[in-house]
Please model this.
Amino acid sequence: MSKIRAENITKRFEAKGHRPVTALDGVNLEAREGEFISLLGPSGCGKSTFLYMVGGFVFPTSGTITVNGRPVTGPGTDRGITFQEFALFPWRTVIENVAYGLEEKGIPERERLEIARRYLKMTNLSAFEGHFPKQLSGGMKQRVAIARMLAYEPEILLMDEPFGALDAQTRSIMQEELMSIWQQNKKTVLFVTHSVEEAILLSDRVAVFTARPGRIKEIVDIDLPRPRSREAELGDKRFAELYHRLWHSVKEEVDAAAAAGTDNAVVGSPASGRYGSRRP
Ligand code: ADP
Ligand code: MG
Model:
């Protein structure tokens, strides 16, 4: 049985005074239990929208999404999500933010704090447990959001550009932590990223989205052996082939988005491995 199954998903946003936007048009995607799938595509093609629909925060205009064989009707503790804007509770300290999901699960306070501290340690935030979000840098807030998601141990991780605001070194450490958590606990992961390199390093399969309205253009199997490391992959011939293929596939869609004159058109350089983007 597939863990996540999206069938023929279309999403149209219609708001008074705004032109209607068809964000997604006929998306089909299936994730097997324990699979790591990255979503790549130009800004504005509907990646966040898709992730939030699996999370149960946004609903498709047509089509169905099931998780564990049941239609998604709202958020649930089986799915953990990090939003692109990593919304933290501003009135809660770092540790209270991380312990939030555990509170929802009815775990007693002492145990809650113990678990929260474990994940704060992992994300290198132990010294900041009593701080409030406004006292933290963007990268630190992002790590709090990741710790909060991991702390209540959902089966499914939905991550929206989770490492985008991190410096290269922290990003690399977080990628390794995520891989080890994923491997030890057999989580199913949907991971949105702008980085082709990151997608290859982490994923079993990479789904490339077309320019808006987003459809899945192709799904590429990442047939590199595990465990993987950044150092090993960078000199690897197969890695280079996959990088080349995916980079061109995404670039074609980025160019299409630019030609269509969408306000989400982006520019980027292959060398950076990142399509420098304006946040939608
Ligand atoms: P991505 O994450 O791939 O950059 P998004 O899913 O954020 O793309 O957005 C897809 C499209 O849907 C964009 O054109 C965006 O402006 C539009 N959109 C997203 N959320 C809303 C909303 N709540 N209301 C209206 N339009 C929206
Ligand atoms: Mg997005």
